[in-house]
Amino acid sequence: MPVMPVMPVPPGLPGLTVVRLAVVRCPQWPIVAAGCELDEPVAVVHANRVVARSLAAAQAGIVIGQRRREAQSRCPRLRLVAHEPARDARAFHPVVDAVATMVPRLEITEPGVLTFATRGPSRYFGGDAALAVRVQVLVDQVIGGQCAAAGRPAVGIADGCFAAGVAARHGVRAAATGGSERATHVVAAGKSAEFLGPLSLRWLIDVGGVGPNLVGLFRRLGLANLAALAALPVADVLARFGTEGIRAQCMAAGGDDRLPGTEDPPEGLVFVHRFETSVQHLDTLVFAGKHLAEQLTEALSGQGRVCTKLLVTAETEHGERTERYWSRGTGLSAQAMVERIRWQLDGWAQQTDAAITAGVIQLQLEPAEVCADVGVQLGLWGGRTQADEWAQRATARLAGLVGDEHVVVPAWQGGRHPGDVYRWVPAGLSDLADGAARLAPTAGSPTAAPWPGSLPAPSPAAVYPSAAEVTVVDSNGQPVSVSGRGVPSGVPAVVRGDGFVEQVTSWAGPWVVDERWWDAGRHRRVARFQLLTTSGRAYLAVIERQQWWLLAEYS
Amino acid sequence: MVVAVASVPRTTAVVAGTRVLDPDARDRLAALAPRLTGGLLAGDRCIPVHPAYQGVLPQGLPCGATVLTEGQAALSSAFLLAAAPVQMGAWLGAAGLAAFGAQACAEAGVAPERVVVVRDTPSRTDEMWGQVLAALIDGFDVVLFGAAARVRAGTARRIQSRLQQRGAVLVIVGAAGPFSCDLTVASRAVWSGLGHGHGRLQTRQVHLEVTGRRMPRASRDTLWFPAGDGRIERLTPESGSTPLRRAV
Prior knowledge:
By secondary structure, chain A is an alpha+beta fold. Chain A contains 16 helices and 22 strands. In chain A, a hairpin with a 2-residue loop joins strand 3 and strand 4.
């Protein structure tokens, strides 16, 4: 098949050339990453909505976007798994590595979806159709068995990102209905607009990421399909719907190439670190990568820009290379870059079939796309401020000083004890710019449930890192214990600990809590007391197996 | 006022002690005064504090200050000092506080997404603390520190001069150690709601006493921290007995 990498500009879109792209899509990737038996109904939930479901769950009536409760009522056997993007990314590495043996430069659009330009590879492998089949067979070999419960991976090739994504979905559908032997869908060069034309506007939501409100508005205005949207005058669309509308129209016309507003980075903006001796430790590499990422963001921010697509390359002494594109629509901060460098190098090091044989001697960062830095609107009170920038820098510096695991930020966990509600996670592993996600209880996960039996506010300000062993006796000097029915043997009168003795003036409890009784290893049955002493200090104490502990102080 | 005279060279007024030769000069100076107060000196810049602190710190916290919180509510009054700046976008860094209660911190009004804690390790040397504190002061507007006794005097001096350059606020919890503190917030807590085998800790009155180098006398105030409805507010005579709900 003759390959024409660059197709003419769709009408009314000045100066845009459309690159021919291939999209490899593993449907319902979070399900595959979570692990699932062939006929087991599983759903991955995020923010109380189903984001992915297995084929068995789909047959039971589970659909994407459904509420958790509704999904459970449709299918009581349904196993729910919390959404974990890091797990998905980790599990996707084998696929990326396999495809990378055929295609040098890949973009991991999201875990489960790979995008690459077909120009070179399809010439080498004898045309788009041949390339698509080869890639599909390869992916099937690597991951096909695990994907059985979620659906077969498919490859789509078309001009432009949106059309290629839609083509890949067509491939997935064709494979699911069993109509076609191979799960591939190739749209001929220059035919993207024709391919998209008769399709429903829903595709804009599913693949293009356009807001459902805008698509709903298009529908109410009488636009039946993508062709109708593409046929509107560009100036009118811009005037009426703004840049979001232009983007949607651009997609509908098969002309989208990259995120709107992005541009090529300035020439020669490459940051390379050559190691004098080859390096084998991941941490050293990531540290060097951090330095490069800071230089890169600094150079770009000097021009008021932010990197939206980054090429990370590493090379070993023996000439083995890893090259990956990473992109994020809102721009990659230095920290986000470091995170991605870590993912890439980690995955590369754990590669099994083509293990690296020597240490790394060179690490290189190159921005592939930049856009004007307009800041990221985080929330109602948001915006990225100078204070955030400073704090993030200082956090990175602190992590370098005292070690990653000693610089921590709170993350919501939920629990009945004061130390359980927030857990501490290393700051280096979490995106500081997006604290809301870390601190919001993830709906759907069991931790979001109310915690019956937890103590109401006020919470103790000083939660001891490890509980302090004490003895509590009553006025006769007898140790106070709590019976199986939750009745104390006496009135707590004196608390005696390591180096202190205090008289109890008032107290309340016992509040018995019986946690994880179904799990012999983690079962915990404690009775809690609040003790106020003559010195005016208030403590939270627990008794567990006849032993008293001070958990926290209301300081 | 001498500044004001210097900036009006044509006036015939000569301010020498209390004697003013030109009778109009005083009026003209008075007219100029509001125009001159716009520019603040670096030492006068303040960061805002929680409304509950209005009684004892009406100006807010001066930038570059070192504040010591001590007493029965040392940690929670330190959290409350950080609440207003963090709500306005500042970041809170904490070090040397092994028992940092994140939930109480959030209840005091500190946004937990802008909190970073450096964990305590017993082996940390004085030099290490110096570096950690310097990094904290460079990046965070409010720094809580709970291990002042483990820092040497020289390090403390260096840290404090850096603090003044940067304009952050260092809140030392517990004991001041070698740090010289501009303000000391001493607290005494009176809990209510807890009985003998019944009730629960429900409300607390915190009696604050703020003393400082630049304060001629101590200022005192009493807060509901928290009141029965969870709010943190000043104890005013009319609210003196109301916030406590019936004990359970």
